Amino acid sequence: MKIVWRTGHASVRDVYEALRRERPVAYTTVLTMMKILERKGHLKSRVEGRAHIYTPVRTQQRVLADMVREFLNRVFNGSAEPLVQHLVRDGQLSESELREILRQVKEDR
Fold this sequence. Notes:
Layout: H1 2-7, E1 10-11, H2 12-20, H3 27-39, E2 43-48, E3 51-56, H4 60-76, H5 81-89, H6 95-108
Helix pairs in contact: 2-3
């Protein structure tokens, strides 16, 4: 999805080549995943010549928001507080990140 979001549209070959630069991956694996993403409604495709060109149905921001909401509901009963506390205690948030979060909270109020 990241590759399709970044480029706006991509064939299976495009995604395969981009992923292959990062790690070994089988072409058939990429094909299968893109078909699954299309079936789930995350991608749509059109035929150009012999290739299917895939485009994202939803924005990366929308998908991220939905995934975070689902994660919070499933793991933290819908509350973000325990997640943030864990990230702070575990050292996952830097002081500058915490300051930015506080700035955004104040701005949104």
